[in-house]
Fold:
Amino acid sequence: MTKDDLITAIERVLNENRTMMGLEELVIGADTQLVGEVDSLDLASLILELETMTELAPFADGMVPFATAGDLADLHLPDEIERGGGASSVA
Amino acid sequence: MTAGHECATGTIVISAPRSGTTVLRRMLDAHPEISCPPDINVTTHCARMLREERVNGGLAMGMVSGPWFAGFDAPTVVGRVRDLAIGLNNEIRTSKGKQQWVEKSYFHGFLIDEIEQLYSTDCRYLCLVRHGLDVVYSMHEHCIKIGTYPGELHEYVRRYNRPLEAFAHVWADTVARMRRLLQEQPGSALKVRYEDLVTCPEQELERILEFLGVEDKSDPGTLVSDGLGTLGDVGLGDWKTYQKPTLVSDSVGRWKSEDRETLRPLAAIVNPELVAWGYEPVTIPRPLTDEQARRRLKMGLEISWIQAGAGGQQ
Structure:
C-alpha cells in the first residue's frame, strides 16, 4: 500500500462517517491538517481502520505525534519500521 | 358527544417533549381566531386524573372507577373532568377574544390514552413529530438546564440507566402511540413534521389552518413574523424560541455532530419509528470490539493532549 493509497483511504474513511451523517465531504491531501481539525475520537477511529487495513499498529506503544494526513499515512507505511517510525505488526 | 357539557372548539398538540411545540404555539397564537397559550397543563393534569391503579383481581383504584360505589358511573366522572378541561381552555380563549383554542404541553405525548379517554372525538389532534435523535439530545440539554427529569420522563430514566437511551425510548414509545392515534382518528388528527414546519413554514401553516377550519386564511407568512417577531404571552415552554425573532432551522440534524459510538445504541432504538415516520434510518457501521473501544478512547485522549499543544511536555 503506497502513501497515496493511504491518503485515499483516509479520505474515504473520514467521508464515510460524514456521508452517513449527511455532512459535506472533505477533500484530503498529504498536507491536510487532521489534528485540531477532526474530532479526536473520530481520528482514533480512523487509526483503528488504518491498523486493520495495513496490519500495522504504529500507536501500539503510545501516541506518536502527527499533524497531517501525510504524517498519518507515513506512519502506516511498512518501510516506516525500517526508518525507525515505530510501526509494529498487529498480527 | 360524550357525557361532558362544555362545547369543545379545541385542538390538542401531541408530541414527544422537545419537538418544537413552542415555536408552533407562538405562530398559531398570532392568528386572529386561535388562542394557543404557553403550557397551561390543564389537559395534562386532567388526563393524569383519569389514571387508575390496579390491585389484585384486576380491581381498579382511582377517580374514574371509585365513584361507581357512590352511584356515579365512569362516563359521568370523565365528563366532569372533561368539562373542567374544556371549560378552562374556553375561558382562556374567550378572554383573548378568539374563536378556538389549541393547547400544547411538554407532557401530552406521555398521556395519549388518557387524553383520548378525556376528549374522545370532541377535540382535534395536531401530532407534531421531530427527528428522534434531535429530540434525544434536546431532552438531554433541557434536563440539565432545568435540573430535573420532569414528570413521566423520570419513569424512563429509572427504567434505563443511560439517560440518552431513556430519552430515545421516550421518543420511540411516544411517536409509536401517535401513529396509532393518526390511524384511529384519521379525520381528527393531523401529522406535522417539525423539519417541514421550520423549512417550509407557510406551506405547513396553511395545511394546519385548513385542518383547524379557521375562516381567516390570510397569509400564513404573517404568523411567522407576528408570532416570532413579537414577544406575545410568555410562560412555560421552550426558552430558545425567544432567542431569535424569526424561524430558524439550525437545530435540524444537530445529532449528526455527536459521537457515533454514542449514537449506535440510540439508532437501534429509534430506527423503526424513524422509518415509519418517513425519516432515513440512522446507520452506524461495525461495532467496535471491547479492546478497540478501549484503544479508541486511549488514543482519542492522547490526540486531545497533542491538540492542546501539550504533546511535547509529557
About this structure: The mean pLDDT of chain B is 89. Chain B is about 50% helix and 10% strand. The interface with chain A takes residues 253, 256-257, 259-261, 283-285, 288, 292, 295-307, 311-312 of chain B (CB under 8 Å). The longest strand of chain B covers residues 10-15.
